[in-house]
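[job 4471] stage=fold_predict status=RUNNING
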Amino acid sequence: MSRLDERLKTKRELATADTSFAVSAKTTRIARRDFLKTTAAAAGGLCIAAYVPELAARPVSNALANATVFAPNAFVRIAADESVTVIANHSEMGQGIYTSLPML
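[job 4471] inference complete, writing C-alpha cells
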C-alpha cells in the first residue's frame, strides 16, 4: 500500500469516525454589524444609567487645596515656565524602562 493510499484511508476513517463523544455546544453566529449595534446600545444604556444628577450638581472642590505638596527629587526638575526635566543617570539603548522617558 502506498503512502497516498494510507493517507486517504486515514482521512476516510476520520470522516466516518463516531463523534458522539464530542461536547455538543450550541454556537450562535452573529454578524459584526449586529455585534457593534448591540454593544453600542448597551454602552449608551450604561452611560445613561450611570448619570446621577445629584453628583453633577455638586460644586467641584479645588483639588490643589487638598493635595499634598509635590517635592521633586534630584532627577526631576520643574522650571518656572512649567517645563519638566527628567534626568536618567544610566545610558539607555532602547531595551528597557528608560525608553519611555522621552514620551513623558
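[job 4471] summary: Residues 32-50 form the longest helix (19 residues).
[job 4471] exit 0
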